[in-house]
Specification:
heterodimer; A: alpha/beta; Rossmann fold; six-stranded mixed beta sheet; four-stranded antiparallel beta sheet; 7 helices; 24% strand; globular; disordered C terminus; B: alpha+beta; 2 domains
Chain lengths: 236, 293
């Protein structure tokens, strides 16, 4: 469960980029975070992936108020959250495999099973032949897929994605959304920030709409969340 | 204990940290030179001081050589009966010539030079010899007598030696402080260069210790690599200088006994500098990360 209670946040004591935000996301739910540029979507995600602390309010995640959690407790909590950054934030000196393996290594994993697991996932996102390539040689769409693979490799409890399908073609976009939906079915709570209204309509997940740092909570358009994909979309 | 792996990129040529092994080599080189100089000086001074400890020299000068010889024998007799004096020995002409040789050259001590008679006294270790009383007694035999108590001016040399040693220690401390500052600067520069990597690691749940470990290992390697090179060059310099002194100043300057055991402690310098570098880098990284959420 993720719950925001009257959360406000500003940068460097400036104006509030988030103003008195309250919402509750059930465990295993999937939501879209929408709103125009500058509405506060990335700031809201930053609070959720524990990169910032709010000025006021409570953020309940993992059954505790993470806004007031001790600093030394945060790394463990962060490992339960997968993040797809808008600018990918891949490490340029590492290959795609090593980038995706990072969360596993940070958690103390080592050995060939890590590589096997990572290669399987990269293969699934269509990067079989780009596994050893460095991010600087990858296209925007390829980078995005590596970033998504890195975010989901540890089967996080919460997955946060900032414009995850912004740089990929419609077919790959559907494949990636299929991955998110499947993860969601396995119990991962997912929040996807996007401008893509078609995608929101298609998936039909509830929407958190931000405008000027304030939240408008909109309901989903479909009863059942899911994708009307080709049968083999998740297998090819 | 946190897991460890090197997630940092290889150092690029343009990075400031590329120069760190060189800087550490220079620091260890200077430290080792300062320490070696201090140790050799200490050892040389100890050798010299211990050879003069408990010794007094009496010089009898005059124009009539026969007269001063007679006076010196009388003085020798007087000294032998003085309590606290263990041995009394008149130096032979040959010994005096040898003492003058480094300054005048071999065979240049001629008969027409007014060479004084010298009496070497050895005093008992626990005895107190009243030099003023002794000098006035001797002056009863000859007015042209000079009693040289080495302890008088040895004290001045002790002060000089201590000053030089403390100066060397001060130089060492300054080198250490400079090294720490350079490592802090290098670590901060490297952290700034790899800001994105550190942020990603941090946001993916890497503990501060894990990030610090990558830095401390890398910086320890720099310290060790530079330290070993610096020490090798300092040894080469010291042994080169010592052989030069031995060849050029033979006779004028007595070579000190090399304190091998103490000099061997210099082998620990690279390890010490590596640990200092490691610890400084670790503290710098932990403090910088502490400012992040």
């Amino acid at each position: 469960m993720v719950e925001f209670r009257n959360v406000s946040m500003s940068y460097n004591k400036g104006f509030d980029v988030l103003n008195d935000i309250s919402f509750k996301l059930e465990t295993g739910s999937m939501h879209f975070l929408t709103g125009p540029s500058g509405a506060g979507k990335t700031s809201l995600l930053k609070l959720m992936y524990l990169a910032n602390r709010p000025n006021s309010g409570e953020i309940i995640m993992f059954c505790r108020d993470v806004a007031k959690a001790a600093r030394e407790d945060l790394p463990k909590l962060r490992r339960r959250i997968g993040v797809v950054f808008q600018d990918f934030r891949l490490l340029d000196h590492m290959s795609a495999v090593d980038n995706v393996a990072l969360p596993l290594r940070i958690a103390g994993g080592s050995g060939p099973q890590i590589v096997e697991h990572v290669e399987e996932l990269l293969s699934w996102v269509g990067l079989d032949d780009r596994m050893l390539a460095n991010p600087s040689t990858l296209s925007g769409g390829e980078k995005q897929r590596v970033a998504i693979a890195r975010a989901v490799i540890r089967r996080p409890d919460i997955l946060l994605a900032d414009e995850p399908t912004g740089n990929v073609d419609p077919e790959m976009s559907e494949r990636l959304m299929y991955l998110f939906v499947e993860l969601n079915k396995l119990g991962t709570t997912i929040v996807i920030a996007t401008h893509d209204n078609n995608l929101v309509e298609k998936i039909g997940a509830p929407r958190l709409h931000l405008e000027g740092g304030k939240l408008l909570h909109l309901e989903g358009t479909k009863k059942n969340i899911g994708l009307n994909l080709d049968k083999d979309a998740g297998q090819s | 204990m946190s897991a460890s792996f090197d997630f940092l990129p290889k150092v690029k040529n343009r990075e400031a940290t590329k120069l760190l092994p060189w800087v550490m080599a220079i620091m260890v080189y200077l430290s080792a030179l300062a320490a070696t100089g201090s140790l050799l000086l200490h050892s040389g001074f100890d050798d010299w001081a211990s050879s003069l400890q408990g010794r007094i020299t009496v010089q009898i000068t005059g124009e009539d050589r026969d007269e001063i010889i007679v006076q010196s024998l009388e003085i020798q007799q007087l000294l032998r009966t003085t309590p606290g004096i263990l041995t009394v020995r008149i130096l032979s002409d040959q010994e005096i010539s040898e003492l003058l040789e480094p300054w005048l050259g071999a065979g240049n001590v001629t008969d027409d030079l007014p060479i004084p008679v010298m009496i070497d006294l050895e005093t008992a270790e626990d005895a107190y010899v009243n030099l003023d009383a002794l000098e006035s007694k001797i002056k009863g035999i000859s007015e042209n007598v000079y009693v040289d108590d080495h302890a008088r001016w040895l004290g001045h040399f002790y002060n000089l030696a201590y000053t030089v040693e403390y100066t060397a220690l001060g130089i060492l401390v300054m080198i250490l402080l400079a090294s720490v500052s350079i490592v802090i600067f290098g670590t901060k520069s490297s952290m700034s260069e790899h800001k994105n990597t550190i942020e990603i690691m941090h946001l993916m749940g890497a503990q501060d210790q894990m990030i610090a470990k990558a830095y401390q290992n890398r910086f320890m390697y720099y310290g060790l690599k530079g330290g070993i090179a610096g020490l090798v060059f300092s040894f080469l310099t010291v042994f080169g200088l010592l052989s030069l002194i031995q060849n050029l100043a033979s006779g004028l300057v007595e070579m000190p006994t090399l304190p091998y055991l103490k000099l061997a402690s210099l082998l620990l310098f690279p390890i010490f500098f590596a640990l200092l570098t490691m610890l400084t880098a670790r503290i710098t990284v932990i403090r910088a990360l502490g400012r992040m959420v």
